[in-house]
């Protein structure tokens, strides 16, 4: 049994490294832009933003498809979309066709993103579930770091070469084919407390709002960091790019120990992650040098790897077992929607605050994170009291 669980965990982690694959080419956008010099910068940026829209749509559809199609089959389809949509642009010269292929990449990530969490919830329970969810987040961060680093090196060779980084999906595909079973755990065969075949999401909406607001704040890091470093004269564009590596490192390290953190902090785990987010943004906003920005990026990674698994586990536990996959899909839809709209919300607010708009964006995000953290403390106290009352 333990050996079987080990194989399942390996399969989940193997395709979790692909989930941040959209930003793998981020370091090479300027190189791609030079090749397509007749196109405006906003068109080049569609290579990143267009897949995000497809992720929103298909992460929701994946939640419904899981009711009818084997999760292994869906994962395989998602990985194939990742490989095909991610790699074929290396052989294409038409920007329009490349955009279509990037959309296929978004479909693949949109399918696999909710499945990675749904499989953890299905096959693991209690503290073990939290532990594996943390490891799954760590795998995402590791994949992010590897693809960004690899993408930077490949971009030096040529604009088309950078797309080869998506071939990493072949490794994931092989592991999934070998290790992930087609069968469904017996405990999820029917929903408990609701008629079989009927999804009930009434308990998940608080988690949806939490994830949405978290990523309104959380997305500020990746969108504004290079501009902050430049406007505050803290370092070079290359050094600004390295902040993502520190972010991924922090997320990876925290993901490895998230299970222990959740076991110790219990109902206050969420508030710790949100406080760390606010603190990390204040560190970066008032950083006197690039070293402090790196430290803030590391802490920001800690925050992400606490809040994300905490919200996903909370969402899955707020509904019956049959509804859990759809609950996770809805929460991840909120995440991707927030990532898409965050700049459009933060930029006008930061401009209204006055001063350097990039620093103000970080201060706005820090304030939002800290307000959410205070709310999470009161939520944790209330949940503690409720559990003590039920135990009495």
TrEMBL record:
Its main location: membrane. Residues 7-384 form the Major facilitator superfamily (MFS) profile domain. GO terms for cellular component: plasma membrane. It is a multi-pass membrane protein. It comes from the Bacteria. The chain crosses the membrane at residues 12-32, 44-62, 74-98, 104-125, 137-156, 162-180, 204-229, 241-261, 268-287, 293-315, 322-341, 361-382. Keywords: Cell membrane, Membrane, Transmembrane, Transmembrane helix, Transport. It is found in: Cell membrane. One of its GO terms (molecular function) is transmembrane transporter activity. It holds the Pfam family MFS_1. Gene3D superfamilies: MFS general substrate transporter like domains. This is Putative niacin/nicotinamide transporter NaiP. The gene is naiP.
């Amino acid at each position: 049994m333990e050996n079987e669980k080990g194989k399942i965990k390996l399969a989940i982690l193997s395709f979790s490294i692909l989930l941040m694959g959209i930003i793998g080419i981020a370091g090479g956008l300027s190189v791609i832009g030079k090749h397509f010099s007749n196109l405006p910068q906003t068109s080049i940026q569609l290579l990143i933003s267009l897949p995000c829209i497809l992720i929103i749509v298909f992460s929701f559809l994946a939640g419904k498809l899981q009711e009818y199609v084997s999760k292994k089959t869906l994962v395989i389809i998602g990985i194939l979309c990742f490989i095909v949509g991610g790699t074929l642009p290396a052989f294409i010269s038409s920007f329009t066709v490349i955009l279509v292929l990037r959309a296929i990449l978004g479909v693949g990530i949109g399918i696999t993103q909710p499945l990675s969490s749904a499989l953890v919830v299905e096959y693991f329970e209690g503290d073990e579930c939290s532990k594996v969810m943390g490891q799954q987040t760590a795998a995402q961060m590791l994949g992010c770091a590897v693809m960004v680093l690899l993408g930077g090196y490949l971009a030096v060779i040529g604009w088309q070469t950078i797309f080869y980084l998506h071939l990493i999906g072949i490794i994931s595909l092989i592991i999934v084919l070998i290790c992930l079973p087609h069968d469904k755990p017996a405990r999820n065969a029917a929903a408990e407390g609701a008629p079989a075949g009927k999804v009930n999401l009434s308990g998940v909406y608080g988690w949806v709002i939490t994830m949405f607001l978290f990523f309104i704040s959380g997305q500020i890091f990746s969108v504004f960091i290079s501009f902050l470093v430049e406007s505050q004269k803290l370092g070079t564009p290359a050094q600004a790019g390295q902040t993502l590596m520190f972010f991924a490192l922090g997320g990876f390290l925290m993901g490895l120990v998230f299970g222990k953190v959740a076991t110790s902090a219990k109902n206050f785990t969420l508030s710790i992650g949100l406080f760390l987010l606010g603190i990390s943004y204040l560190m970066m906003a008032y950083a006197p040098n690039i070293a402090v920005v790196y430290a803030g990026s590391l802490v920001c990674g800690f925050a992400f790897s606490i809040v994300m698994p905490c919200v996903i586990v909370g969402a899955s536990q707020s509904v019956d077992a049959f509804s859990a996959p759809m609950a996770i899909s809805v929460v991840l839809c909120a995440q991707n929607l927030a990532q898409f709209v965050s700049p459009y919300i933060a930029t006008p607010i930061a401009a209204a605050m006055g001063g350097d708009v990039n620093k103000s964006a970080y201060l706005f995000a820090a304030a939002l994170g800290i307000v959410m953290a205070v709310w999470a403390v009161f939520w944790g106290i209330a949940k503690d009291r409720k559990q003590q009352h039920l135990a009495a």
